[in-house]
Design goal:
alpha/beta; binds (2R)-3-sulfolactic acid
Amino acid sequence: MKLFIYHTPELTPSDTTPDCAIAVDVLRATSTIATVLASGGEAVQAFSDLDQLIAVSEKWPPEKRLRAGERGGAKVAGFELGNSPLDCTREVVQGRRLFISTTNGTRALQKIQHSPSVITAALINRGAVVRYLLDKQPETVWIVGSGWEGSFSLEDTVCAGAIAHSLVENCPISPVELAGNDEVIGAIALYSQWQNDLLGLFHQASHGQRLLRLKSQEDLKYCAQVDILDVLPIQQEPGVL
Ligand code: 3SL
């Protein structure tokens, strides 16, 4: 297995696709997606464009759908949900399809959606992602951070590092053998340094600070937990997990 980490969707090569592509938006889209599916959501359908989300979701019976939208960290007016994973309780999401659009996370997913295997990862479901990779042994894997509007984000890279770190611990492969690019070594180093204080790292991250200003402290705490949900969001058809 060769692992490549890209800090933003814009950095992914355009002339090739990996055997398995993983979108990461720890704060908060991929944490929300994992939570919805672990809480009995029927599926999650992701859109980068809000108008398209509205048009497609209109075709679903209102009692079977939920619309979740975030722009700039805030909830989109008129939608039932924003992008807080803590709002996605079993009572709210069970049996319903979540139609979601967020600033960066759903864009990252869209960028990789034509790979043969597409999954989403967050710290909260890291173990399920690692088990899938160890089981399927894809030859090439991309982990694509969502970043923030084209720039690097600490929380996505530390999650990529958490996945790479666990791969190295659970199969006979060294970081250098696993690494398809230098970003992998950097991400493992970041995770190794911060693994006991991921919340502290989030407090230093620019998007963590943005969410704190929006009073989303509890979301930060929730998303900083590792391996609490045994769920693998895997794409069934483009954009649908
Ligand atoms: O950018 C995104 O996709 C979001 O996850 C951002 S937020 O955490 O909902 O503000």
